[in-house]
Amino acid sequence: MSLKVFFLTFIILLVFSGAVNGRRFISDSGGLISDGVHSEIGRDLEILRLDRDFAGGEEESCEQSYGFLPCTKTALGNVFLILVYGYLMFLGATYLSSGSELLLEILGPGIIGGLFLPVLGALPDAMLILVSGISGSTAAAQSQVSVGMGLLAGSTVMLITIIWGTCCIVGKCDIQNSVAVDMKDTRGFSLTGSGVSTDIWTSHAATIMAASVTPFLVVQLPQLLHSTSGRHLSVLIGLIISLSLLVSYCVYQVFQPWIQSRRLAYVKHKHVISGVLKQLRMRALGRLCTDQGAPNIEVLEKLFKAIDEDADGYLSCTELKALVVGIHLEEINLHENDAIEKLMKDFDTSHDHQVEMSEFIAGVTKWLTEARGSEASSPEAGPDTMKYLDDLHEQTRREHHFLGDQSDESVETVENPRSTVIKAVLLLLLGTVIAAVFADPLVDAVNNFSSATSIPSFFISFIALPLATNSSEAVSAIIFASRKKLRSASLTFSELYGAVTMNNLLCLSVFLALVYIRGLTWDFSSEVLVILIVCVVVGVFASVRSTFPLWTSLLAFLLYPFSLVLVYVLDYKFGWS
Questions:
Q1: Which of 50-54, 145-149, 238-242 reaches the highest mean pLDDT?
Q2: So which residues are the signal peptide here (predicted)?
Q3: Residue 195 phi/psi, 5° resolution?
Q4: Are 481 and 103 spatial neighbours (Cβ–Cβ below 8 Å)?
Q5: Dist CA 345 CA 303 (whole Å)
Q6: Alpha helices (runs of H) in 29-74, residue ranges in sequence order
């Protein structure tokens, strides 16, 4: 982070300490004899007090966080405190994000990308939720814990409504053949002709996000059954399920790069097979298949002899090269030598590094059988047209596109990795300390503002706190989406779905642990309903399609005010809370 940020943080803390010292000087000077000069200074310093309303009036006592951080009971004073503490929480989240990215550059995906990054990303929210109910009496914790639920719901809703829709707008490209074309944006704000496309892994992430609401349903069961006896037990069961899903999700994230590489290798292999079959069909003197659909052995033998240039009865790697010419391997980021190696591995069952005629016929027969049985086979495809080969080749090309292959991206080497690791660790420590220290004062400021204005603390935390804890993540996602590529859009939306999943698992686990350990009452039916509606609607919608026209962003934007109105109506009109 830049020195300007550190300097600004220092200035804010200096102002805080000055405000505190000013308060103590004023209160301690009450018993002194005025000389006419110092009393005037005292009156000037009195103006600086945070806990004095601009309209005047008697001051109400408030409890300082840690015994020295300033507090106030006035609305304007708490607005200032919320802004300052919120900015500090934003800094903490930014430090955590920067440190995580540096570690990712050094150590790569796997444990770092799959385990630490999601946990660290959700750490500020988890801290705020924890401090909202960990201190004070049970009654006070029951009152303050609504701040944690407001943050949990507000963070989830904001990420997949406002931020989701914004990323869709800034990342829009022209849609052709149901796919957004990279770096092509000529149709303006066409609601149907412009939008974004994502890869298949992003659809999987959306599915996981939709499934992550399961613990909410478990905890909500007693309310649905109008039972009061099993509420505490349902919280415990929901906590266990939430922790189990959290561990499972982290394990999946750790092994996801390996799963992706295996899936990509399989698709590339299928693309080579379909391309070779097309080449064989064009070179065949007759049809590859008989009228009954069986391989035409006579034609295959002639093909083998035509490819066997030295007529030694075997096909070498050099001779197999003729089969991969014209397949357009660059479409799937595959080198010609790798394609030949795949062919040799499939044909050479005797492992003698050459292909006999029997091995060639057996290999082509197996490929034709697989091609006919693929989902790409069209109704009119048959032994006369062999159209299923074209269908399979096109399917594998599209499937590779939506898998988001990044093998052609250059990987930059990190200079001086030792100092980079030290910098990353320091950023992570600083971000963690800031989030831990200023979470409690921020929750207190929200509660005090709620008391001063009679606005429910849930709505304040629903709207304001996610801006502090998710701003850096939101800005990063929007900037990345503006690159207008399938890869950048896929990464952007995957991170949004992953952040919501961690909210629904890690942050909910912290929340449920608080409710269970402190014996609090679970009374958040309307909030849970909002989370369920938004997560399930967006999750299911994004799991069944990979291209999102611009009109989908309008629906996402509408979900945000709908969520606020729904909670208000259910709690204050129908008395759910």
A1: 238-242
A2: 1-22
A3: 170, -160
A4: no
A5: 19
A6: 38-47
Tokens describing residue 327: 């397949």
Q: Residue 30: what pLDDT?
A: 41
3-state secondary structure of 350: coil
Judged by DSSP in three states, 175 sits in: strand
- Read off the pLDDT of residues 474-508 as tens digits, 9 standing for 90 and up: 887 888 788 898 888 888 898 899 889 999 999 99
What integer pLDDT is reported at residue 132 of this predicted model?
A: 86
**CA distance linking residue 480 with residue 397, whole number of Å:** 25
Mean pLDDT score, 279-305: 73
C-alpha radius of gyration, the chain, whole number: 31
Edge-to-edge strand order for the sheet containing 547-549? Answer: 179-180, 173-176, 194-197, 547-549
Closest by alpha carbon to 239, among 549, 514, 1, 460? 514
**For residue 315, what are the CA distances in angstroms to 270, 305, 306, 476, 478?**
21, 9, 10, 53, 53
Give the confidence band of 29 by pLDDT, cuts at 50, 70, 90.
Answer: very low
Helix (H, G, I), strand (E, B) or coil at 548: strand
CB 572 within 8 A of CB 459: no
Which residue has 């109704």 as its token pair? Answer: 379
- Please tell me what DSSP assigns to residue 66: G
Q: d(Cα 158, Cα 538) in Å, to the nearest integer? A: 12
Collapse the DSSP code of 276 into the 3-class scheme (helix H, G, I; strand E, B; otherwise coil) and give the result. helix
In residues, how long is the chain? 577
User: How many CB atoms neighbour CB 198 within 10 A?
Assistant: 28
The two structure tokens encoding residue 5: 């940020």
